[in-house]
């Protein structure tokens, strides 16, 4: 892979969140407290504002710094979890990753999120998108296919009953709504793989 353009990745991710902040909030209003869109937008706009400084660092350090920043700025349950995802990715990724390294690092980062959240796929959370995306990476799927896998995985949280996070307080009433964190994860995945895929 040619060197990743981190500035472009940050801009694409922040745009995806900003463009969908209201929709994310609406999802969280249905089965949570309605702050997810604002939480994510706040964090990703701070990261966007410091994109130049992040991009000047080697990729592993940049991802760790972005993760730390997301923990500090996103808040809610999702801030520490997305923060963990990026920090763990930074710990495992190489400075110029090939697909194999990226896939392995992503898998370990997902394990770190699951450990932090005491959660696993099937509980109607961001993990229900992260895990199928990891499988798609392992299967050698293209950027466009991976983005579609992520969208479908977010949709697939609709019939699930939430077993983690605020939505789990609703029990069966959480059924029939998409998980907000799964949706934001799918938006981030599409933004990142499409940006990387453009130069493949
Ligand atoms: P809060 O629930 O504190 O208001 P957010 O609304 O920002 O935080 O984020 C909620 C999202 O976080 C959920 O939609 C879900 O995807 C994710 N989430 C919550 N708890 C967990 C957990 N234990 N493991 C994985 N993801 C979780
Ligand atoms: Mg919330």
Automatic annotation (TrEMBL):
Gene3D superfamilies: 1.25.40.340. Residues 4-194 form the DhaL domain. GO terms for molecular function: phosphoenolpyruvate-glycerone phosphotransferase activity. It comes from the Bacteria. SUPFAM superfamilies: DhaL-like. Its EC number is 2.7.1.121. It holds the Pfam family Dak2. Keywords: Kinase, Transferase. InterPro entries: DhaK_L_YcgS, DhaL_dom, DhaL_dom_sf, Dihydroxyacetone_Kinase. NCBIfam families: dha_L_ycgS. This is Dihydroxyacetone kinase subunit DhaL. The lineage of its organism: Bacteria, Pseudomonadati, Pseudomonadota, Alphaproteobacteria, Hyphomicrobiales.
């Amino acid at each position: 892979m040619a060197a990743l353009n981190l500035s472009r990745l940050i801009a694409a991710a922040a745009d995806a969140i900003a463009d969908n902040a209201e929709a994310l909030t609406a999802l969280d209003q249905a089965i949570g407290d309605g702050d997810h869109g604002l939480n994510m937008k706040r964090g990703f706009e701070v990261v966007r504002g410091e994109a130049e400084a992040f991009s000047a660092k080697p990729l592993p350090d940049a991802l760790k710094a972005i993760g730390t920043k997301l923990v500090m700025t996103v808040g809610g349950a999702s801030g520490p979890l997305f923060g963990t995802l990026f920090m763990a990715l930074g710990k495992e990724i190489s400075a110029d990753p090939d697909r194999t390294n990226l896939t392995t690092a992503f898998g370990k980062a997902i394990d770190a999120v699951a450990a932090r959240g005491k959660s696993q796929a099937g509980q109607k959370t961001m993990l229900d998108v992260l895990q199928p995306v990891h499988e798609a990476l392992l299967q050698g799927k293209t950027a466009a296919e991976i983005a579609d896998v992520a969208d479908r995985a977010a949709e697939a949280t609709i019939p699930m009953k939430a077993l983690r996070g605020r939505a789990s307080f609703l029990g069966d009433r959480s059924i029939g709504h998409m998980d907000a964190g799964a949706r934001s994860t799918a938006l981030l995945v599409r933004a990142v793989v499409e940006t990387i895929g453009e130069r493949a």
